[in-house]
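Obj.: predict assembly geometry.
Materials: sequence records (below).
Method: joint structure prediction, all chains together.
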Amino acid sequence: MIQKITEDIWFTPYFKETDRPNLGYVRGSDASVMVDSGNSPAHTAEYLSELERKGLPFPSYAFLTHHHWDHTFGLPSLDDRVVSIAGKNTNRELRKQQKYVWDEEHLDEYCVDNRIPLFCRPHILLEYPDMSRIVIHTAKLEFEGELRLDLGGETAVMRKITSGHSDDCYYLLAEKAGVLFLGDADSEEVVGTDWIDHETELAQEIRELEELEFRCCLTGHAELRTKEELLNDLRARLNALRTGWEG
Ligand SMILES: [Zn+2]
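Observations (raw structure tokens):
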């Protein structure tokens, strides 16, 4: 069920079993943007029908926060109806994944060298009973530095953020409302079934977030948090890393 953050900012909530992330929505008077494109055409279709149920306009844009399957594999099902947007590094990683063969045997091979973390394997198999249906698209619009989209009464600002999760984490900030969509940039790197924190990147990410003006933040797989709650969670992890204390 779609949930409201403000009159113009919504999201469909994450679902652990198949690792579906929160999918965001920002509406302006002229255009609207979807944040992340879903982990499958089924996930994307569910999101779109929730928008329709609330009478919210079909998104003009779909922005990808990073390349991971759960945030991007739904894109082909709406790519002919939206302008898809991604940072340069995200498209670079998607191009690599386009060369993969999607069946169980190859998935096992990719899990061995962590091209796909083992953590993802059961989720992918559950979401895709027929993996041959997986198609990967890159985003049509690729940017470096900062991209600003005037949606009419709201501006979506997209920019790269340092994160240990992956080298292609980008955020979307609904500037007027102060709502930040952070993708998985708050997360550790996933290696196999382990979540590995990186001290340098985490410290840098905290500094970048401290400087950024926002009121609340929605990440891929967690509840909505205030800026302070998000920063406190990240600081606690950094502190644990520095003191060697597992909190
Ligand atoms: Zn991710």
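Conclusions so far: The mean pLDDT is 97.
To do: check interface contacts against the pulldown list.
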